[in-house]
Design a protein that fits this description.
The protein has 78 residues and is mostly helical. Helices cover 65% and strands 0% of the residues. The chain is built from four helices and no strands.
Length: 78
Amino acid sequence: MFTQIGKLHAENDFLKKLKENGTPVKSMVEPDRDDVSISRQCHLLGKSRSWYYYQEQKNPVLEYRDNIEKRKIKKLWE
């Protein structure tokens, strides 16, 4: 029973941060916390665990176009 109370207290502290911040962002997840797991933190934020680990893939075509545009702008200012 005391273990459950401790877990609920830790989750409550974690949720206070969500209330202050407003929208869930990855930086809110604290991987070093021993009292609330990453999976549970994501669940409390209403997000899946994969949301936390997801890294957006860069589109090589768009990156190439951006580089061309950057070069054009750089030439204008030289």
